[in-house]
């Protein structure tokens, strides 16, 4: 049984407690978010070997390991989880202190709209990095389907929206394509939903490009299907798949164990790519342009 308190240093009375460098804390947080040293190195603009040295330094300072190392990934152990929680607070406090004395070049509120899978998969890292570089800008996020987001953008309720689309034109609006990815039929590993006839499918509203791709493919193939699980959000579609109640056309990146991309043995039609597009005005405010630039950079790195 572990009887020591986390981060107990065993310092002798009167010995000064060592100070944790902010760069070290930033690196540890980056590793926790990416799961490996190489990707974290890109985030903090250091080499992987420099990252390894930083980790060694902080572990020696704290006198215990903070990561569980595997062949290609690293995960936080119990002490590491505690460290990262405190590191986030320290880094946030640092940003707050600096903002008190150094007026940010860009400030304001940006109203950002995004579809749910973009919000889940991409926005956390985008907003975290943006907050580091633009502490004076606050981003308010609205999660809706593409049609609703486009309508809110049209009437001026949103400054930037991220929608799913098939081409560079979306409902009469010019869309800047940020990211393309293939779609796949997603099902439960070892499940039998794909063997049923008619095929149980999970999709959403008529305007959804995933729905259009999946159902049109089934119709061209002559495969009988029924929409048996309806959800406007990818989390709901995952629930239907995990219960083995349906298969669904989803981005390949969303197929994470035990949800898998079904192979040709299931006899399902091939699916095309889809795109994530951005709507924003060319004459937008500096704060809106700053968020748009961060989104462009993030999706460029993801491609």
Q: How would you explain this protein's 3D organization?
A:
The protein is of the alpha/beta class. The protein has three domains: about 20-100, Orthogonal Bundle (Arc Repressor Mutant, subunit A); about 110-170 and about 275-300, Periplasmic binding protein-like II (D-Maltodextrin-Binding Protein, domain 2, 3-Layer(aba) Sandwich); about 180-275, 3-Layer(aba) Sandwich (D-Maltodextrin-Binding Protein, domain 2). It contains ten helices and 13 strands. It has helices at about 20-35, 35-45, 50-60, 80-100, 115-120, 125-135, 145-155, 210-220, 235-240, 285-300; strands spanning about 65-70, 75, 110-115, 135-145, 160-165, 170, 175, 175-190, 200-205, 225-230, 250, 260, 275-280. The two termini are about 45 Å apart.
Number of helices: 10
Shape designation: flat
Content of β-strand: 15-25%
| Percentage of residues in helical conformation | 40-55%
Any idea what the radius of gyration is?
Answer: 23 Å
Overall mean pLDDT stands at 86
Q: What structural class is derived from the secondary structure elements?
A: alpha/beta
Query: Which residues sit in consecutive blocks of at least 5 with pLDDT less than 50?
Result: 1-9
CATH class category name of the largest domain: Alpha Beta
Any idea of the CATH topology of the largest domain? D-Maltodextrin-Binding Protein, domain 2
CATH superfamily of the largest domain: Periplasmic binding protein-like II
CATH architecture of the largest domain: 3-Layer(aba) Sandwich
Largest sheet: 7 strands, mixed
C-alpha termini separation: 46 Å
Indicate how many domains the architecture comprises: 3
Order of helices and strands: HHHEEHEHHEHEEEEEHEHEEEH
E-strand count: 13
